[in-house]
Amino acid sequence: MTRMLQAITVGFALAGLTAACDVRPVGPAPDPEPAGAPDSSPPVSIIRPSVLAEVEPKAEPAPEPVEARVLFDYGSAALSDVARLNLDGLLARPGLIDDRWTLTLTGRTDSRGGTEANQRMARERAEAVRDYLVAGGVTAEQITIVAADAAGPAPDQTPEAAAAARRVDVLASPPPRP
């Protein structure tokens, strides 16, 4: 029985030595498979969509366009104190200057006066607003001026309606998001 144990022990020892030996043929190693082989499918995330939604940064909503109205006295293109305050509020809008918003200034008049005079007055009013905005930091390239026609003949126009018609409508639009 001792011999049998010795034979088994020697057998195990030989089996262990044989297993420890590397019996692969010696030669160049095969080329590895490229990482992004064209026939392979795209990688799939193992993160649940609900968790991924919590981790991904949320895009800020695009700012809404801003409208303002600047009123003028009859026959005048001079900015009043109220008009300046209104424009200062517009200039304080975050991103208006730094993000290069576009501004459209539409000069308007009431129905009194001739067509040429009203066109000239509408343009002068829009230019007065433009000059104030440029002095406040907006570049002239950001601004488009439109001199609108008068509201049309309205001989029975009330003083309140005429005062509301003598204005510059300002539309400030944010730049498009990439």
Describe the structure.
The protein is an alpha+beta fold and 178 residues long. It has a domain at 76-173: OmpA-like domain (60s Ribosomal Protein L30, Chain: A), CATH 3.30.1330. The chain is built from 5 helices and 4 strands; from the N terminus they run H-H-E-H-E-H-E-H-E. Strands 1-4-2-3 form a 4-stranded mixed sheet. The protein starts with a helix and ends in a 5-residue tail after the last strand.
The first-to-last residue Cα distance is: 86 Å
Oligomer: single chain
Q: What is the approximate shape? A: rod-shaped
Would you identify the CATH H-level superfamily of the domain at 76-173? OmpA-like domain
Q: Helix/strand/pairing class, anyone?
A: alpha+beta
**Pattern of helices and strands:** HHEHEHEHE
CATH topology of the domain at 76-173: 60s Ribosomal Protein L30, Chain: A
Return the CATH architecture of the domain at 76-173: 2-Layer Sandwich
Would you tell me the overall average pLDDT?
A: 80
- Unreliable sequence segments: none
Percent helix among the residues?
25-40%
Number of continuous helical runs: 5
Strand content: 5-15%
